[in-house]
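Help needed: design a sequence for this.
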């Protein structure tokens, strides 16, 4: 397994980008890298645009924050890097709901 490591970036020197309970959206399709039990390697866990909530915050390689995101509609808790996520702005979400009504 090839681990992509951004050697210049040490996220854990700063506060986490997202806090517990924060509503977030996946910026990319996330596939199982072999660490998600019960799913085949390469199987899609999260689609781009899926929304979830930060349920836990850990670290990886003493370098990155890993956010355990509860993608409630899929029933998965997936560990993701901050760059794979974006915050969901409550005002933006209200505009989307009103615009689709």
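Sure. Designed sequence:
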């Amino acid at each position: 397994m090839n681990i992509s490591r951004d050697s210049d970036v040490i996220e854990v020197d700063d506060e986490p980008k997202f806090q517990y309970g924060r509503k977030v959206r996946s910026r990319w399709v996330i596939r199982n890298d072999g660490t998600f039990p019960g799913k085949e390697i390469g199987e899609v866990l999260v689609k781009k645009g899926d929304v979830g909530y930060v349920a836990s915050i850990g670290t990886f390689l003493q370098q990155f924050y890993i956010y355990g995101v509860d993608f409630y509609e899929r029933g998965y808790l997936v560990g993701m890097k901050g760059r794979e996520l974006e915050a969901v702005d409550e005002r933006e979400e209200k505009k989307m709901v009103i615009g689709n009504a």
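The chain has one domain: 11-100.
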